[in-house]
Amino acid sequence: MLITLDATPLLGRRTGIGRYVEHLLGALAARSEQDGLELQASTWTWRGAELSGLPAHVRPVGRRVPARLLRELWTRADLPVIETLVGATDVFHGTNFVSPPTRRAREVVTVHDLTYVEHRETVDAATLAYERLVARSVARGATVLTPSRTVAAAVRAHYDLPQDAVAVTPLGVDDAWFEAAAPSASWLQERTLPDRYVVFVGSLDPRKNLPRLLQAHEQARRTDPSLPDLVLAGPAGRATPDGVGPAVHLTGWLSDEDLRTLVGGASGLVLPSLDEGFGLPAIEAAAAGVPVLASDLAVLHEVAAPDTVFAPPTDVDALSGALLHLAQARRTPDADDARRAWARQFTWQACAAATLAAYATGRS
């Protein structure tokens, strides 16, 4: 089976979707010989960025074409077909909402969430275009992959799709998260970080709900001044959002290793999003043995560890109270091991197996 994946999310700094594509490609490549797979990776870019560090058995293909132009064309017509850009292929997997029309190849598209439908006010015009792009894909018979059962149900309902048109391919956790260790005192001092902290890993995207988290943290500190400081990591750690006070710290850009170290030493991780497709930071924190405060969303109830503290994301008072509750959680060996045991069920090997099954049995 010749499989081509859109690897555009691998260009530049890795977002959550970039990590999904990276690990899915790696897990597929690991089983390519035993399963008789040929793997190709394409990108849509006019600026000349090239893929690097692809796994063995994955070759780059495709012409240099502007992504914006392709999306404009594909929102209006079923041209150009993917074979004119990458050559013949049995399957084309659009890994990031955008699935091109095909001449003969099976069309597969990953829909990570329905933010462009359910939280339209939080996204830009490029993201709003997913509504038409995904609708055209499913009308052509594309198989939809989603990272959770919650998103799968929402996609089936919104696009009026049958059960077998959508496959759930839960994300995995990098094995290195299970070895995450707390930082040394010198590591924290070098980065001007406190000894005790809770951590937020995410962006300034409105759906990540950072302004309410900052309000809730300030309010909780007024109730209990001993509450751990808040550390903002990921893209949010590289900018200064409104509401940052002396008990809030920004990390700047962190390598994957440093991010694991930061999370591994946290009193807790906070994921207060208005919407999530999966909530990978909650699983990564559990793999590191770290307790989590998460939004009271169906998808996070689906994937987060059993001892997760939940709070309505739009209720600042509730988030404040949940932060106080999270601060009382204790990092005991038994509790940490229970969280790690929960996280071990999420593997990239299982994600790849479910994805391959969809390639083989999806709609034609």
Describe this structure in a few short sentences:
The chain has 16 helices and 13 strands.
Descriptive report:
- The structure is a single chain.
- The chain has 364 residues and is α/β, with parallel strands linked by helices.
- 38% of the residues lie in helices and 15% in strands.
- The chain has helices at residues 16-30, 32-35, 67-74, 83-86, 115-118, 125-128, 130-139, 149-159, 185-190, 210-223, 256-264, 280-287, 298-303, 316-327, 333-343, 348-361; strands at 2-6, 38-42, 58-61, 91-94, 106-110, 143-146, 166-168, 197-201, 229-233, 248-250, 268-271, 292-295, 309-311.
- Helix 12 (280-287) links the parallel strand 11 and strand 12 (292-295).
- The chain is globular, with a radius of gyration of 21 Å.
- The two termini are 14 Å apart.
- The model has no long low-confidence stretch (mean pLDDT 93).
Order of helices and strands: EHHEEHHEEHHHEHEHEHEEHEHEHEHHH
Q: What's the number of structural domains?
A: 2
Tally of contiguous helical segments: 16
Task: Report the CATH C-level class of the largest domain.
Answer: Alpha Beta
Strand arrangement within the widest β-sheet reads 3-2-1-4-5-6-7
| Second CATH tier, the architecture of the largest domain | 3-Layer(aba) Sandwich
Strand segment tally:
13
Average pLDDT rating: 93
Output the CATH homologous superfamily of the largest domain. Glycogen Phosphorylase B
Beta-strand residue fraction: 5-15%
| Helix-and-strand structural type | alpha/beta
User: End-to-end distance, in Å?
Assistant: 14 Å
Protein name: Glycosyl transferase
GO biological process, one term: lipopolysaccharide biosynthetic process
Keywords: Glycosyltransferase, Transferase
Domain Glycosyltransferase subfamily 4-like N-terminal: 16-176
